Amino acid sequence: MRKWIIVAFVLALVAGCKSTEENPAPVEEGAPTSTAPAGTPGATTSGATTPGVTGAQGGPYSPAALRDPNSILSKRSIYFEFDEVTIKEQYRPIIEAHAKYLQINRNARVTLQGNTDERGTREYNIALGQRRADAVKKMMVLLGAQEIQIETVSFGKEKPRREGHDETSWTENRRVDIVHAGE
Asked: Do residues 133 and 95 lie in contact, with contact meaning Cβ atoms separated by under 8 Å?
């Protein structure tokens, strides 16, 4: 009797292991997309348009999609309001796409780099940058990425994207950058 149970289990296991080429993974409808040009601070995104994760060879969440300018995975910055760690709704699709990428590519790793504008003390800005990076990490983990895949670091005000002492510069510097390993 035991042998038959083992044989049935093995057959069920083998039957469930079909090639992904025969049964490709379904593409999620309503996948997020960006409606603003890449690199635009404060760019709005919407999940209501056609899927934006297109990827080159290998599918929408392949490593090639990270380099595809038409892919939402090419968007790498999450911007914040002054002295805030709350993630704006418009950046959720970007975070969702990167979380999905990590979920599918279990060997992939990212570093979330928290940044602030120049206002505030060095210590305060390091802590604020870390809280921002941790907020993005928490959302990615809740969306299916593994905690071990994500490292966070804060640069505070030490690595500004735009030099200057005005609101335009400060807006670009209040961000978390998503950096995939090997880039």
From this structure: no
DSSP symbols for 7-74: HHHHHHHHHT---TTTSPPPPPTT--EE-S-TT-TT--EETTSS-----STT-TTSGGGGG-TTSGGG
Domain containing 115 — which CATH number? 3.30.1330.60
Q: How many domains does the chain have?
A: 1
**What global pTM score does this model have?**
0.69
Owning domain of residue 100: 45-180
Between the CA of residue 14 and those of 2, 9, 10, 11, what are the distances in Å? 18, 9, 6, 5
Classify residue 37: in a domain, yes or no.
no
Indicate whether 39 belongs to any domain.
no
pLDDT digits (tens, 9 = 90+) for 17-39: 433 333 334 333 333 333 333 44
